[in-house]
């Protein structure tokens, strides 16, 4: 069975897990804390970063965007179509642009700040970078998420899904980022009802169920987090 080295509150890992769920692909999850030196992780990815996918034949793909493309080629194309990427080359370019927007830009401006300050620092020792949350980083994330949420709403109001007519990597990347932030109750859903309606739709997909079921000891999810009609 393929392996996925991941962390439950890594948005990049969640993105890959959503793809695997949409492809109905079973995988063995190997939970890893990337801030600790992990020899098993370093053997498959010398960079020591998550996520890492190790296929049943030993082929290894490291990094969420690389894994997404690998899975599209090996799983999405097995029935003669590349599910989660549009058929038209221009539409595929747009889906990939949005994938990068959410997985890189939104992550760097919102999710990474909140996950680090409010989740990961709780699990780290002082030597690993743990300690009190950085209030300035949290304020920056809270300011930045509003325009990302508005952009999602703008896209959702004009298309069936964020990347176009069909569900794509763009939707899964955005949803993965939001899911981590929403666990913390840090998404101002009242700021954009269209974005909220889009998220409710994707949150209701079977691929999302395992993610919504995960919790962290000592840090309960926001009360609406697993509610499909929030």
TrEMBL record:
InterPro entries recorded: Glutathione-S-Trfase_C-like (IPR010987), Glutathione-S-Trfase_C_sf (IPR036282), Glutathione_S-Trfase (IPR040079), Glutathione_S-Trfase_N (IPR004045), GST_C (IPR004046), Thioredoxin-like_sf (IPR036249)
Pfam families assigned to the protein according to its UniProt record, in alphabetical order: GST_C (PF00043), GST_N_3 (PF13417)
Organism: Prosthecomicrobium pneumaticum
Keywords for the protein's UniProt record, in alphabetical order: Transferase
PANTHER family listed in its UniProt record: GLUTATHIONE S TRANSFERASE D10, ISOFORM A-RELATED
Complex formation: Homodimer.
One GO-annotated biological process of the protein: glutathione metabolic process
GO MF: glutathione transferase activity
Record-given protein name: Glutathione S-transferase
Its EC number(s): 2.5.1.18
